[in-house]
Sequence to fold (313 residues):
Amino acid sequence: MKNSNSNTKLIFLHPYIQKQGSSNRLWLLAFISFFTLAFLATLIYTRDSNSNSTSATTSNTMHTTPLSTNTPLPSAVINTLLHYASKSNDTYHMPHSDLKTISDVLRKCSSPCNFLVFGLTHETLLWKALNNNGKTVFIEENRYYAAYFEEKHPEIDVYDVQYTTKRSEMKELIDSAKEQVNNECRPVQNLLFSECKLGLNDLPNHVYEVDWDVILVDGPRGDWPEAPGRMSAIFTASVLARSKKGGSPKTHVFVHDFSGKVENVCGNEFLCRENLVAATHSLGHYVLEKMDESSVKYCKNSNNHPSGSASSS
Fold:
């Protein structure tokens, strides 16, 4: 039997060895922590620098090249829009000559230009585009079509109005307006408070407060005796033009389908032949000046009776 004590070996772990291993691990941990913090600091600094640089660049760009809402459409764009609008297959589209006449006036209009249009037509989007720097408002007789159009084209500002006139009553309505020229049917007034049979008094309040530079009468319908006709639209346009408080003293009023009896007769009665600067078979162009509040005549020539279609000038 061997002595177990003779094979027994005692191993002593020196304290220095334990401390040395622990110290190495601490140094390694400290080294990793240092570089981790350095990396995070560098990442944050770089991101902030890039963000500030981008902000500064954007700010400088905004100061050096501001976005302008008053930049007119290039001539090439306008000509292209007119070309395709006039080539439409729509039966009731305007000819190129009429489109260009109205477009030329809008281009010369001081910016921003205030443009009022009676009727939603094939050219509605064109008018909005051509007057892209200004205020364009449309007045439509059909409330359902107005709602549909505005939903489909949210950028279009359209209001519906209820016409109470009939095309067959044109003569009586004109006679009534003449009789009331000193009162309800004055040529200078705020139609919002008027009871004139030919005046539209149920438009939004702000429509009466705008100084309109250009007005186009291309509605409502007037193809049969019971249709509303354009008597009220023409009369209202004449009063709005003469009742301006500011802006340009002149207002361009266009009447489409000028060869029609209602358009021609009411144009001569309320817009006046002396204000007719040009006319074709389909478009009458009047230029009206604002009047004094005490005015009681629509036309300078009180003997200016309705006649046939105006000749081109």
Summary: The chain has nine helices and seven strands. The longest strand covers residues 250-256. The two ends are 144 Å apart (CA to CA). Residues 1 and 7 are 12 Å apart (CA to CA).
